[in-house]
Input
Amino acid sequence: MKWISFLIPEHKALLTKYHKEIQKIEMRDVDEQVLSVYENVLNDAICSGDMVEVRERE
Output
């Protein structure tokens, strides 16, 4: 990305598309009740300044 100003527009567009695809996070379908619990935990952590670790179950 450092030398992106020297690239032709087609290369710049491809690099931008590539970086967007890399940063995508695929979410599984999650029940609304579970999402509500996640939201409450995150809101509580934000309000109290606590740290929260989010991990994917295997």
In short: DSSP finds two helices and no strands in the chain. The mean pLDDT is 82. The first helix runs from residue 9 to 22.
